[in-house]
Design goal:
alpha+beta, 2 helices, 4 strands, 41% helix, rod-shaped
Length: 140
Amino acid sequence: MPRQNEAGVTLIELMVVVAIVGILASIAVPSYRRYVLRTNRTDAVRSLTLNAQIMQRCYSQNFTFNLAACTGPLAVLSANGNYNLAVGNLANNTYTLTATPRLSQVQDTTCASFTLDQTGRQTALDTGNNDQSLVCWGAN
């Protein structure tokens, strides 16, 4: 009795496919993670800009950046919760707003902190305190 040819996938063919998928995943996953971190930076930029608008509105109404004279509260977390927001260097004529990463965004070592002051000066530092303003605030 002749033996019939059976159609199917051999173990070697299956292992080749698994190896190819593994190689593709090892390239795609880190690339996707970097993309997500870079995209989340807009959360810091947007939140700092909104807080700066509140501060400028306060100054235009009261001629001071004193938070006690302002009506709108400043956010302490960014809109999506990826950054902690703080006010520093606060005086009648000056302020500095700072955003620092939290949760999974702390893995973004390129943009470890964002700052915005009353003159509109935008700065950003990496984890080594090197200036990364163009990368972090600009269009990446």
